[in-house]
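Meet the record:
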Amino acid sequence: MATGPEDSEHSPGAGSEAQFGPHRFSAGEGGGSDRLRGARLDAADLRGARLTDCDLTGVRIVDGWLVDVSVSGYLSDFRVNGVDVTGFVNGELDRRHPERVQLRQAETAEDARAMWDTIERLWDDAVVRADRLPAGALSERVDEEWSFEETLRHLVFITDAWASRTVLDEPMPYHPIGLPQSWYPAEEAAALGIDLAARPGYGEILSVRGDRMNVMRRIVDGLVDSDFERRCHRSPAPGYPDDAPSVIECIGVVMEEEIEHYRFALRDLAILETRTTGSGREPA
C-alpha cells in the first residue's frame, strides 16, 4: 500500500519539498531554521542535547562518543562506524511489529479492510492496557513526547485531515480537540476551529476517537479496488502540499500514522507502568 512518507518519492531528503507524515518532518529546501546548516562543531560538549523535527540529511559525526544515545525517525543509508544499519533497524521493527509488514503488503480493498481490522485490534488492546493505569498517567508525557491522551487526539486530527477532508471531500471536518503535528502553526489550527489549549477529559477523547475510527471503518468497508487511484482534490489542511493525493495514499497515511503512534504508545505505556506499578512488563 502506498503510504507516503516511506515511499522513495516522498521520503525525507528525496526532494526539495517539505514532507509530512508519522516520521516527523523534513523541512525541505527553505523550510525550518537554517541557522545551523553546514555548521562545524569541533570538540564540542553536546551531552544532553535534544534535536526534534530536524532534517539531518548528510550529517557526519566523526570520532564522536555515542553513549546512551537515542535516535528515532526516518532512516535511509544510516551508517554507524561504516556499517549501514538501516536494514537491521527496519527488520527488527518488522519483527516486533508485524503490522508494518502487513501495511506494506496491502494492495487490494480486501487488504485494506484486513489492515484496519488489525489496527482496531491493536488499539483496543492498547486502550485496555492504558485503562489499568491511574487516570493521571494518561495525560503524562514521557521524555517530552505526547501523552497517551495527546496521541489519541492527534489521530483524531489525522483522520479528519487525511480521511474526512480528502477521501470524503468534507471542507471542514476538524474536531476542536484534534491535535495537529507540533510544527503546525497555531493560527492555522485556530482557523480550522481547533483549540490547542483544550484539555478535554479522557472520556471525551475516547468518544471522539471512536467516532473517527468508525469513519475509517465505513471508508474501508465501502472500498473497491478501482477506488484506489481516484484523486482527492482537497489537501488534508491548509499548509500541506496541494498535490491531489490518491485515495490509497490518503488511507495509507492514516494507517501508517495509526501503527507508528501505536508503537510509540506501547513504548511509553511500558514506562508509565514501571512508574506507577513497578511492573516493568514488556509491551505485548
Helices lie at 86-96, 99-105, 109-131, 148-165, 186-191, 202-221, 247-277. Confidence is low (pLDDT under 50) at residues 2-27, 279-284. The longest helix spans residues 247-277.
